Amino acid sequence: MRSIDLSPLYRSFIGSDHLASLVDAASRAEKQSTYPPYNIELLAEDKYRITMAIAGFSKDDINIVVEDNTLSITGTKNSDADKQERKFLHKGISERNFERKFQLGDHVKVLAADLENGLLHVDLERVIPEAKKPRKIEIGGRLFDSE
Predict the structure, then answer these.
(1) In whole numbers, what is the pLDDT of the chain averaged over residues?
(2) What pLDDT score was predicted for residue 48?
(3) What domains does the chain contain, in order, with CATH numbers?
(4) How far from 90 is each of 19, 35, 39, 54, 95, CA to CA, in Å?
(5) Which of 6, 48, 106, 139 has the greatest number of beta carbons closer than 10 A?
(6) pTM above 0.85, yes or no
């Protein structure tokens, strides 16, 4: 098993050590589970889409929650009666329960979620407040006017 030394990141994230911690946590969490498979797309400059392959799940089986910059998508299949009636010769479509978590950046909002043809689409957008947007500081200029 290969491990990555993230100590150089801690030195270069001055005042933002939590960013290196998030990268470290994400790399550890990614090793835990690969189900269900997903894509993350960049739709526009600040618009993103997470697409998850969740064949066999309905809207009622899926729970999507955002809490403390963490997007949690949980699928719970409760079909004990259905399992008893069906007899498979080959079962290649996994319908097992899952929980997938995504760490969202600051100011990223979940816009919508849609389930179509066995694919769950979750649309996200990064909305940066005016106070947080970069601003140019002129050399010799003053930030505060004194009277």
Answers:
(1) 79
(2) 93
(3) 1-32 (no CATH), 35-131 (2.60.40.790)
(4) 45, 19, 27, 18, 13
(5) 48
(6) no
